[in-house]
Amino acid sequence: MVAGRPAGKRKTAVAGLPEGARNSTRQAKARGFRSTMGNKAAKQEDSDVDMAASLSGEGESSDDSEIEDSDSDKEMDDVTDEPRLSGENASSSTGTQRHVRQGPTNAEVMALNEASMLYKTNLFKLQIDELLSETAMTGDTKATTELDDVLKRVRDELVLIEDTGEMSVEKATNHVRKLGKTVTGAAMDVPFPDPAPVVGLAIKLAVAAPSVINVVGSYPLGMAVRTQSSFNVDVMVQMPSHLFQERDHLNFRYFYKRAFYVAMMRIQLHRSALNEEFDIAFDLLRNDTRLPIVVLRPKKGKKQLGKLECTIRILPSIANEAFSLQRLSPGRNNVRLGYLLDDRAAAGVGDKKDEEQPATPQYNSAILSDVLLLTHMKYLFETREKCPEFGRAAALLRLWLTQRTMIGQQVGAQQQLMGSNRINGFILSMVLAWLVRSVQAQRGTGVKLSGTMGAHQLFKGAIEFLAVHDFEENAIQFGDDADMDAFDDNFGAVFVDPTASMNLLSGVQAWELAELRLEASKTALDLNRSTEDCFDRVFLSAALSNITAKYDHIFRVDVDLFKFLSPRHGSELKATRRLAELEMGHPVVAVQSHIATFLETALERQTPLVAVHPCAIDFGQRTKITRKHVFYIGVIAEVSEARRLVDLGPNPEAQPQEAAEFRMLWGKRAELRRFRDGSIRLATVWGGNSMSFEARALILPRMLAFLMRRHFAVVAHPEILIPEDLLVVDKARPSSALSFGTADDTHTGKLFCMSGRINDFVSTQDLSEFDADQITFEAAITGFDQLQREIKGLEDQLPLRVLALHPVAPGLRYASLAPPKPLAAHQDDAFIEPLHVMVEFAGSSKWPSDITALHKVKAAFLQRLGECYTTSYPGAHVDVGNRFYGYGATDGLFTGGSSLTLGGQADDFDYERDSFVDIRHAENGYCFRLSILCDYEGELLETKAREMRVAGLITQAEALETSHRRWLRTTHWRPKHHRQILDLCQRYHPAASLTIRLLKRWLSRHMLLGQAVGVPEEIAELLAAHVFTDPVGGLTAPASGYSGFVRCLQLLANWRWDEDLCMVDFSAISTSNDEEDMHKKSLVGAMPQGIWSSKGISPDAFVTLQSAFDEAKKQKQIKGELRIVAEDNPDALWWGTVSPVLTRRLRALSVASLQQIVECLATGSDAGLPQVFTTPLSDYDFVIKLDSDVICRKYEQPPSSAFHVVDGNMEVSSDTAVEVFKNLLPTMQAKSQQLPKAKQHVNPFNQRGIIGFDPIQLFIRDLTNVYRDAMLLFNDVYGGQHIAGLWNPTVVQRPAPFVASLHGNVMPLVGEKIGTRPAATYNTKAVVEEIIRLGEGLIDDFVVQK
C-alpha cells in the first residue's frame, strides 16, 4: 500500500466498503492524478515511478492489506467420500520488488501501455488495483490465516455429528427441543418450513455424518470481497443420500428432513468450543423458509478471525443422484393440492395426476439449488482456469452490486430493509461466465468477451450487457439442450444453468431485474465518461443505496396480513392460492411480489420501476408473528407520463377484455370519453388545465394511493386523495381485491407518502384568495410574452430599435417560491414582487462617454419608453424610479405626467442603483420592472478601470472593476443563468422547479437565503440544478420535488467543498425518453457504436475547470466555502461563494433535516416534518421579534395546514404542533426587553399594492451597513417574524486600545490598559438600544439570549 495523504486528514465514510479500502483508493487517486493532465511525457514518467512504488509495496506495510498470490492455482479435486476443506487461490501475477529509482521493467512498460489503451487514465487502473488489494479475500494467505483455521475447526466438528437413526416427526421435534435446551439453555425448534409437518405424517427423519464438506462460494475462488457489512464464507455440507427416498421431493418431505439435519448441525456446533467465540443461530437462505441454514457470527470483543469480520454460513446440500432432475423440471408439480387441503388420503397416489396440478417451478428450483450447488462451483472454477482475470472481474461486480443493494440498510433507529438478496454475486458471476464461455453470448449479444481480457474489460462488458438485456424478453442458456418452452411458460425471467435443469433467476422478481438494468445503464455511462474520474461513482458512492433519495416517490405501507394468511384449508381454489403463496418461500415475500406485480401492471406507463422493499425478517418471525409487517414502495416516475392529466385506456368495442380489466382496475374512476381525434376510449381524468403545478406533481402518488385503497384496503394518512377520488374509491371493489385488514375489517392498512406531505411547505398563505387559473408560472410567462410583443411594437416611437427583452426574474423561470401574483384593482396587498426584465436596444455610437451622463440618458430612455407605452396602452400604469431611492414625491421621481429628475447624488459606479421603469400591465395585472442593457456601458467601465490602474489610482480602479463586475452580473450573467434554469425546468426536468422552490423554502426558513450573509438565490438554483445535471452516485435524475430536495440536502451534507470540484454541466441534461430510446435501440441487436457515450462538457473544458480549482487550492484560496462552477464560470465569479462558516451551518442543518425525514419515513408519521422547516432560534445571541403588522411579505409564509401533524387518525392543530418543539423557542434564560405594543394597522403604508418595497429587508440592510463588523443578521426573507443575530467575538469580546479612530460604540474598561492607552470594549447594551431606536415601529420585542 503506497503512502497517500498525511494522517489526520478528515475521512469521509462511504457505505459498503471497509475504511482501509476507501483510504487506499484515495491514496491511489493522489498518486495517479498527475498522469491525467499537463505534460504527457513528464507525467508518464511520474506515473511509472508511482507504479513501481506500488509494485514494490513502499509506504504502509501491513500483512492485512496484502494478498499473497501464487504462480498457479490448485485444481479442484473430484468429490471424494472423505470430508475435506478446499480453498483455491485466485490466479494473479506478482511483480518483483525493486528499488524505486530503477527503470521500469519490460513487464511494467507493457502494463503501462495496456493501461493507456484500456483505461482513460492510469489513475483508474491504480484505483482498481488498490481496491481489489484491500477488499479481495482469498484463502491460504496471511490475511486469512485465522479464518482458515476456524473453517478447519468447523469441519472437524461437523464430521462428528451424531447418527440419530430414524425418528418420527414428533420424536425428532422433542429430541431437538431437549438437546437445544441442554446446549443453549432454551428450547430449540426444528426450522420446519411452512406448512409444518402435522402429527402422524408418514415420514422418518434421520441424521448421519456428512458425505462431503467443502468451502464453496466466492471465497475459495478468490472472488470474495469484504465490505463494511463483512462478507460471507460458505461451507457446503452434503447430506448422505441414504437419508432420502426417491419420492422425498414431493410435499416438502425433502425440506422436512433437511430442517432436522440443520437443527442437529447447530446443536453439534453449540457443543463445541466454537460456541464461546461465535453466535450460532438459524438463518434463511434467500429469505426462503424452505432453506434454513446455520450461521456463525463472531461475538463482540472476540478476535478469533483477526481483523476480518465475516459470517460463516453452513449450507446443506445433496448429491446429484439423490433425485431425478427430470422430476424437478419447471413444469412439474411436486406439491399436491390434496396435501394442502389436509386430505392425507388424497395426498398420494389417489390425488390428481401431475400434469393436472399447478406447476411448482419455485419449489423445484429450491431443491435444485441444493442438488447443483457443487456442480455450479465446479463450473465457475473451470471458467476461472480458462480466464485468468475472471476472479478479479467477478470481485468488481460484487463490489458494484454491494453499493446498490438495500440489504440491511437502516431506516430510522430500529428498522432494516430486507433488500433483494436473490440477485447476488453468484448470479453476476454466472452472467460473466456465460458471456465468456457461451456460444450464444458470442453470437447474439454484441458483447464480445474472451478469456484473455483484463478484469476491467470483463467488468465493463458485463455491465453493458446487464444494462441492455431483458431476461424476460430474451431468455439465455449455457448450452442448446434446455427445454426453453417449459422455462418460458413457468418463469418470467429465464437464465438456464449449465446443466439445463435450473433457472438461476428463480425467485427473482421483475422489478429487481428492472432496477438492476437501470443501475447498470447508469454505470455504463459513467464508465465511458471522458471528462472526469468515474471511480467514486462506480464503487464508492454512499448515496446509491439510500432509499430516501433513490426513488422519486417513497411510500411506507403498514399492513395486517390476516386475510392473506387465513386461507389454510378448504376449497381447491383456496389451496391453489395457498400454493401460489408457498411458491415464493415466505409470506412476506409473497405479499411483496403481489404488490409489485400489481402496481407494475397498473402503472406501466407512469413509471419504469416500482420497487417494494419489506423490512428485514428475523428467522423467528414465522407465520403467526409476521401478521403485521411494513413495506416501503419506491417509485421512479416517467417524466413525460407521470404528470399527464388523462390516462388513456382501451376502446371498449375493439378491446372488450382489456376494457373490462381497465374498469376493474379503476372502478368508477374509469370514464368513457370521446377525444378530438374522434376516438372513443376509456380514460381516467386526474385534473383540469387549471390544476396547479404542485397538484400535477402529485398525480402519480394519487394514482398509487387510489389503487392501494381500492385493491388492498390501504388508506393514506395523511390523505392525499382529493374528495373526487374518495367518492368512488371504495365503491364496487373487485372480488379479487386482497384486503390487508383484520377479520372484522376494524383496522386497515396505512399508507404514508412523503412526497405529498413535504410539498405543503411550498404553498403560501394567500393562494386560496386568488383564482387558480391566474396564479401560475405559465400565466406570468404568457404575460411577459405579451409585453415583449407590445414593447417591440413601439420601435417606431423610440430613438433606438428594441432588439430583445431578457427576463431575469425567478418568477419567469419557474424558480420563485410562489408563482408571480398579478395586481388586481380590488386587492390591497402590502407587497408585490416586480418581474425584472432587461431591455436591449440596438447599438449606437452616440452614447456619452461619461458614466453619469450615460446613466441619465438611460433614464431618459426609460421615461420615453414609459410615455410611449402609456400612449399606446392607456390602461397600463407606468412609474419610473431608482433602485436606491424608491417611490414618493419627495424623491423627485417620475409618476404620471410630472417631470423626471434623479434625486440626490448616487454612486456613479454602483450599477445596482440604476434607474428602472415599472409597467403594471392593464390586461394580465403583472408588474414588470424594466432596465436597460447597454453594452457600451460595460466597455466604458472596463476602459476607465484600465486607465485608472495605469495611472496608479488603484482605489478608483478597484471601484470601477467592482462596478464592471456588477454590470456583468446584472446585464449578462443573470440573463444567461435565467435561460439555463428556464430550459432545465421547462424543457427537460419539470421537477426541477419544485426542487428549487423547496430548497429556497428550506433555506429561508433557516434564515440563510439572500441577504448580506446568506445564500444567493442563484447559488440555491445551481445547487438544485446540480442534482439534475449530475445525479450523485449514478442515480437517475429526480422526477419529483421530494427526491430532488432530499438530494440537495445530501449534497449539502456530504460534499467535500475543500477537496472536490462541484460543477453544474447544463450541456449534460437529457430527458428520460432519450435514455429509453437508447435502450430500445440496443435491444434490437448488437450495440451500436457510441451508445454509451454520454453527453456533457468537453474534456478540454473539464480540464480547464479542474485546473482552475486545483490552482485555487494551491494558492490556499479554497477554505471550505461552498463553491459551484460551470463551463462559462470557472472561477465562480458570477455569484461568488458561500463563506466557510455558513457552509458548515448548512451542513449541520442538512444532516439534521435528513435525519428527521428518515425518522418520519421510518415511523410513518409526519410529526417531525415541521422541524425540517423550522430553525432553532436558541443558537443565536439575540432575537428581534418584529411587529407582524408591518411584515409586508408575511403572506409568503407556509400555510398553517403545513404544520398540522397527522398521527394515525388524530390530527394535531398547528398551535399544538409548534408548542411541541421546545428547542425552537428562545432559551429560558434569555432577557426580554419588551416594547409597547404597536398599533394595529390594516395597511400600515396607506398605499395600495406597493411594488418591491420591503421595510424589513431595508431595515436589515441599514443595520448591516452600520454594524457590519460587529454582528451578523439573519432573517426569513419570505415574511419571517424574527431577525436573529450573532455577535462577532473578535470585535465584541476582545478589548482594544481606546483611540479616536476606533469604530463602533465602545465603552472604557475602568482600571485596564492595553500598552499605554486605556482599554475599551464593545458596548453591546448601547448597540441594542440603538437598534431599538432605529427600528421604532418595526420591532415588537428584543430578546438577548447570550
Verbal overview:
It is built from 42 helices and 36 strands. It is globular and about 105 Å long. Helix 14 (455-468) crosses helix 16 and helix 30 (935-950) runs antiparallel to helix 31 (954-988). The chain is an alpha+beta fold and 1346 residues long. Residues 1-22, 24-100, 344-350, 884-912, 1071-1091, 1208-1232 and 1234-1242 have low confidence and may be disordered. Among the domains are: 19-57 and 97-136, no CATH class; 551-645 and 686-762, 2-Layer Sandwich (Alpha-Beta Plaits), CATH 3.30.70; 773-935, Beta Polymerase, domain 2 (2-Layer Sandwich), CATH 3.30.460; 990-1080 and 1096-1164, Poly(a)-polymerase, middle domain, CATH 1.10.1410; 1169-1344, Alpha-Beta Plaits (2-Layer Sandwich), CATH 3.30.70.3030. A five-stranded mixed beta sheet has the order 2-4-7-6-5, with helices on both faces. A five-stranded mixed beta sheet has the order 13-14-12-19-18.
